[in-house]
Specification:
The structure holds two protein chains of two kinds. By secondary structure, chain A is an alpha+beta fold. Chain A is built from 26 helices and 17 strands. Helices cover 41% and strands 14% of the residues of chain A. The chains are: A alpha+beta, B alpha+beta.
Chain lengths: 614, 206
Amino acid sequence: MNNNDSLRAFFGDVVRVNLTTGAITREELRLDAVRRFIGGRGLGAWYLYNEVGPDVDPLGPDNKLIFMNGPFVGTPLPAGNKVNLAFKSPLSLSYSYSLCGGHWGPELRFTGRTGLIIEGKSDAPVYLWIDDDRIELRPAAGLWGRTVPETEKRLREELGGDELVQIACIGPAGEKLNRMACITAGHYREFGRGGCGAVMGSKNLKAIALRGTGVVRLHDAAGVMELTEALTAGLKIHPKIIDRRNFGTPELLKTINDNGLLCTRNFSETHFEEGYRLEGPRMREDIVVGDASCFACPVACGKRSYVKAADGRPMLLEGPEFETISLLGANCGVSDWESLVEATLVCDENGFDTMNAGGCVSLAMECFEKGILTLEDTGGIELRFGNGAALVAVLRLMARREGIGDILAGGVKHASERFGAPELAMHSKGQVLAAYDPRGCKGMALTYATSPKGAHHMIATTMGPEIAGGTRLSYENKGALQKENQLSMCAVDSLGMCSTLRGGFGMGDQARGFCLVTGIEMDIDGLKLAAERVITLERMYNARLGFSRKDDTLPKRILSEPVPSGPSAGETVDLERMLDEYYGLMGWSLDDGLPTRERLEKLGLADLTAARRK
Amino acid sequence: MQKGGLSARLREFTGAFSMREPEKMLEYKEAARTGTASTDRREDAMKEKVLVFEAMRCTGCRICEQWCSVHHFGAAGPSLSRITIIRDHVNQIDNGIICHQCVDAPCIASCKFGALSKDGTTGAILVDIEKCTGCRRCIKACPHGAVRMHPEEKYVLICDLCGGDPKCVRHCPEKAVQYLERGKSERPYRSVLVRGLSRRGECDEQ
């Protein structure tokens, strides 16, 4: 076998499903693209750039769902489980991608393929069944309208009760084109942000079920196992990883709250006085009954929680995660587990993003407190900060798209304009800010503002080094920190591993792992170059849509309203200054924030220069 | 063993050790004929180590499946693994399907082709892939669901204990799979069960 044959055997093919015509075709993965963009997020961006043009309506038949696995997915390397979904977002109206952990991505790999591309629109509800190489679309009339757990249960029964079948589906939110709808895999792992669930709903596709009996053929199996063993040993004694294991992502809450950067009451404050009730150790003590892992991950940061609702109903779920606790909890002023867990379950079962949902409810709460919304608008719900029952009630309205919930389901930007209070919507490009208030951590301002998919934290998690280094309020070198972090995140997203492990599974080992599984030579510089190429390509996708420096912005509250109290009291954000430094380092023009011709050529993206508007 | 009578027992011991120790096999054949083998063999079995799985510890990472498949086939894939983890999403429990190394192995008794035997050292079930026809009788006979078809070949996969150093045990980050003497095999399960029940009990009373 020559190198290309063995690479093809390793990656498998790409399946293309046209829902309009019902045509299902298998095509070869473009190996030249793998060499340039690695996989996962990188390949997704490349396919989307080539196949979904600037005039495509995000909820029309021409938008595509491009699922791409990274080369680590399905291998024994720690946490090789993240499958990337690239699509044009109905929420931010821009390029978007979303990564999902759990077991669905690896299963796609075991069906014998790296990627799956969904295009067109079906006349009637259908689901896709991929049983190794037997691939078919089947009617989903009996599933339509069902919640995520119901859909999984019924579909599994229909497929013969095989518990090992991995199912990704949308809930009622996706069907109703809620612009923050997710695609949920295995009940509690989501392609979360950006509204990909609405894209799937617009295509009348209810679910994608997978059963794979294939294998991932490693280039150097002994080498991979040796590296896996060494990395696992290191992860077991890594202090940050131990925290993550013990308390899940909520381990962050104390640090973020104590340093004054936790979103509180629609970002009107940055320290939540009741936050101590939501800290990781407290959560473990109060509600956690077990730990859960994604595929091949020795950390098991997933927390299984059990709470009884106010009316005695038992609630058992995986979660809530840190961002959920922050945006549905602190940002709505809610601090009791009963309300929070129920709110999370409403989102999970109906299939919409807890983060955007939290930002929408907090917007409505602020509007209600300010008298912009009345009891009549809310349908009699006393929508004040801290009212957990009201939070749950509004989320249920959002799930059903009734009353005020219908407006909120259009996304925070849309809702704030309808309420006549656009300045109260805490978003960038329509996507709600994550939990970290950039006034208490300047680097996150750059992350939110320059993210191609709207204010998303996983573009570059600079808050870690900023807090650890005591530089969170400084503007010095934040552009450089942003760039470095962004490259590292993009590398793991493209390789298909979970960013949680970056601390103990660094770029050197990632490059080595890539080489061991694929046989393609790789080093740290090569990974960084590929990552920068991906980020630049994503930037160019948005440039083609007309996005530029003017869109790299943040809510007025973040830029000009000083934090009223707490550890970050008096702080605002001077964004422009940081943008200049960052653009300079990325080789992007200071005028319009778009990649210069020279940089495109240097990155081997000369073919994109035509898309650069003069 | 009671049901099958002498002929079934003979078949079992004819199979036993045949792959590695032909002399011992003859010894056991003779012992079986004179009626002493059953006891000896069962006593030996109590000293053997067995796989023990506890759902209360398992987080569902499936690292065990990866090591199992790569160790035996050099490629990663759960369908080539002799250990399988199944997640029950509704009850949030991950459960493992493993070979329990039964003393009187129903899989061996059920085989009509003499394809299954016990390893004389470890007590693991050995599959003679030349003799196995893929008839699937042993799959139905196994009370633990631990026998599976090879996804592409016409023979079954049964845990071979990696020759006495099971990779799933060595690499399980949670110690959810352990390798213990048969006489002590119930202990971790019972301890964890008691702790776990008390933990969930607290929540129920709230």
